[in-house]
Amino acid sequence: MMEETAPAGTMASRNSNAFDQAKVPAAQRPRLVAFGSGFEPVFGLASRAAALLVVLVMAGIFATLCYQSFPAFKTFGLPFIFNSSWNPVTDKFGALPAVTGTLITSIVAVVCGAPLALGVAFYLNELCPFRLRSILTTTIELLAAIPSIIYGMWGLFVLVPIMSKIIQPAVINALGPLPLIGAFFQGPPFGIGMLTAGLILSIMILPFIASVSLQAFATVPVALREAAYGTGASVWEVCYRIILPYTKTGIIGAIMLGLGRALGETMAVTFVIGNAHRIQMSLFAPGTTISATLANEFTEAFGKMYLSSLLALGLILFAITFVVLVITRILLHSANRKIPV
Amino acid sequence: MKLDPGILRKRRLMNRFMIGLFHLAMIVSIGVLAAILIKLVADGVHSLAPSVFTMSTPAPGSKGGLFNAIVGSVLVVFFAILFAVPIGVLAGTYLAEYGRDSRFGHVVRFCNDILLSAPSIITGLFIYGLVVLPVGHFSGWAGALALCFIALPVIIRTTEDMLRLVPDTLREATIALGCPYWKMIVSIGWRAARPGIVTGIILALARISGETAPLLFTSLNNQFTSFSMNAPLSTLPIVIFQFAMSPYRDWQQLAWVGSLLITVTVLALSIFARLFSRRKT
User: What's the rounded Cα separation, in Å, for the pair A326 and A314?
Assistant: First the structure.
């Protein structure tokens, strides 16, 4: 008891007397440096090295892809990107069908997925009963957890029959004869094709867009929302006139993130795209994407030029997603700088 | 002031319509999730026999299971996580502690953000060029490495976010007592952030368990039962891909069983991770 209540200085001075440097051997003297300080440089260096590895991986991806695709770009030159032939027999390769397929499916995915995701986000933010909110948010997030190959199988065995028997014939009858739009909805209803791939992608990117949008919604000052409700605004008016303008940057960032995801999605698309190296107007026509081409043909690619062309496709894909993700990052960073009140 | 009933009615109608659409969006999203799960259970459960876990992948028309694919998947994912956890936690620690505002820290954070959302198929191509081509053959190690680089950004991101939630006053108090910096990180930072870091690791585990694309170029597939990490290794996602695309009924049946196994595992991991973080924080 006495010791605990004694002033701190007493203990310290007694200690320094007891361990007088001249009398006590070095091993028993109190440590002036804290235990384990010697490990500090090791730990600091290890954490720095681990961080450096991330940069190296990033640089390594670019370097490897550039190096491996060099033969293709050397042979075909820059027109590789704009050439639409893909013929492994004659060793003539061009990236255009795969690139346009990638862009079209991703655009379909965003056009269908973004409104759906925003609807979900607005529902969770404004309408959802408080008790259900965390359960429903988790449920939506689980959509992102399902592996892409499961989406692919489900798409092939469930969605494709529905598309070919019900949706596509109906759409062809309704929109096919129309002058301009009609060109997008032509041809036999195979079920597989660009539109089916885009629809599956839209479901896959939905949870990403919804959850990033919800994060942006959380930055809207409560006072602003309540003031709007207080003056008699309806739920839709609060969403459209308060939340939407306030979180515009964040929402665009969320949609760009979804786009980035859709561009590189592989397995789900591979199952339902049809793998045809042709450029067609119709969304019902089978096509291909960069990732689907890689997944389908890589293991069967024989010959240096074939392999190199496939890796060149990979480089193009990485370059496109890189640009999209950099834009996403800039948008989301400036959106998150708003401090929630 | 007199309210114009026409405008009021229009606003009310618009509101009803949009609220209806929001509900519809929610129903569609949850409906798709339900449809996927129902289809998986309906087609997977009735072929779920003990032989799935004891016999190896069959030739078309003969009896078999998924034993070698399951073991292969477990091996590849296990080694991937084994490499990714120490590197990821250390790198995340660097970003949250040492390099919080340094220039190098910003570069690392930028690269990590890109890798987090970059297509997984690109990582597969990278390992193909880095490991498979120089070594000369596909291998389980290459697959594990590819998955490791996919898990890494997830772990780094969550570790950094969770460490940043630890109050700086706690850090300052520890340092003021004379504790070395690394010890402060280990016994204060990591301890306080542990539930969050573990959640990140489980989420990374869930993410790589179902990854298919990068394995196509790295561990490929093996129709024989082999558990050597130095040789091509059959894994569950790749076997599902091969069997589902095949015209044989019995192969497709096995693909559904495999899909059910993977989905149940991944969903269980994701839900567990969320419950874990919610309970502890």
Answer: 18
Would you call B117 an interface residue with chain A, using a CB distance cutoff of 8 Å? yes
Using the Cβ of B19 and the Cβ atoms of chain A, whether some distance falls under 8 Å is answered with yes
Residue numbers in B near A148 (CB within 8 A) = 210, 212-213
Å between B59 CA and nearest CA of chain A: 20
**DSSP output for A20-44:** -TTTS-GGGSPPSSPTTGGGHHHHH
Note the ipTM here: 0.92
Span A244-281, pLDDT tens digits: 999 999 999 999 999 999 999 999 999 999 888 888 88
pTM of the model: 0.89
Class of domain B51-280: mainly alpha
d(CA B67, CA B72): 9
Residues of B with Cβ-Cβ distance to A261 under 8 angstroms: 117
Cβ separation of A34 and B180 shorter than 8 Å? yes
Q: Residue B218: closest CA among chain A residues belongs to which residue?
A: A299
**CATH number, domain A73-336:** 1.10.3720.10
The full set of domain ranges for chain B reads 5-47, 51-280
